[in-house]
Structure formats: C-alpha cells, structure tokens
C-alpha cells in the first residue's frame, strides 16, 4: 500500500491505543470514586461515557450484579478494530 495509507492507519491505531488507556484510567477511577468536579475526571468521563452507555444500551447483560463490564467490551471491540487495521496495513 502507499505510504499515505500506512501512515493514516498507523495514526488511527495510535489513537485507538490512547483511547484504550483512557478507558483503563476511567475503569480504575470508578473504584476510587474521585471528586466529580475535578476537570480531569470530567474530561475522562466525557470521553468514555458515550461508548459505555452505547454498550450498556445495546447489551444490557454487561451489567452483572452491579458490576459494569462495558469497559471490557469496548476494549475488546477496539482491539478487534486495531487487529483488522493492522492486517490491512501489511
């Protein structure tokens, strides 16, 4: 493939990896219950909550006994997308 397409796919893969780390941070923050008025917490929630709520709406069984497994589903989907993109890159 051309250099432009490879670079574009590489940038998308990098953004996916950054978003996965943001999801991991959001999941860890849910255990700590930080100050909701903290700007960093608000930014992380604004970035992750749309994806989490979409998964909860489409797959209501991901909330098991009060434990929300939607971050795992989102990370799995992002890893799948990343694998597909990397297979296209070669």
Please outline what is shown here.
This protein is mainly alpha-helical and 90 residues long. 78% of the residues lie in helices and 4% in strands.
Structure characterization notes:
It is a single chain. This protein is mainly alpha-helical. It has one domain (3-89). It contains 3 helices and 2 strands, in the order H-H-E-E-H. It has helices spanning 3-32, 39-58, 70-89; strands at residues 63-64, 67-68. A two-stranded antiparallel ribbon has the order 1-2.
Whole-angstrom Rg: 15 Å
Give the overall silhouette. globular
How many β strands by DSSP?
A: 2
Mean pLDDT figure: 94
Task: Walk across the major sheet and give the strand order.
Answer: 1-2
Strand portion = under 5%
Structural class: mainly alpha
State the order of secondary-structure elements, H for helix, E for strand. HHEEH
Domain tally = 1
For the biggest sheet, the summary is:
2 strands, antiparallel
Query: What is the count of helical runs?
Result: 3
End-to-end distance = 8 Å
Query: Approximately how much helix is present in the residues?
Result: over 70%
- Runs in which pLDDT lies below 50 for 5 or more consecutive residues are none
């Amino acid at each position: 493939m051309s250099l432009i397409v490879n670079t574009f796919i590489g940038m998308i893969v990098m953004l996916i990896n950054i978003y996965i780390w943001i999801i991991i941070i959001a999941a860890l923050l849910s255990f700590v219950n930080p100050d909701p008025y903290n700007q960093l917490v608000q930014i992380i929630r604004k970035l992750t909550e749309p994806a989490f709520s979409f998964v909860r709406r489409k797959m209501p069984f991901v909330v098991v006994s009060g434990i929300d497994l939607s971050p795992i589903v989102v990370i799995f989907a992002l890893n799948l997308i990343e694998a597909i993109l990397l297979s296209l890159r070669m």
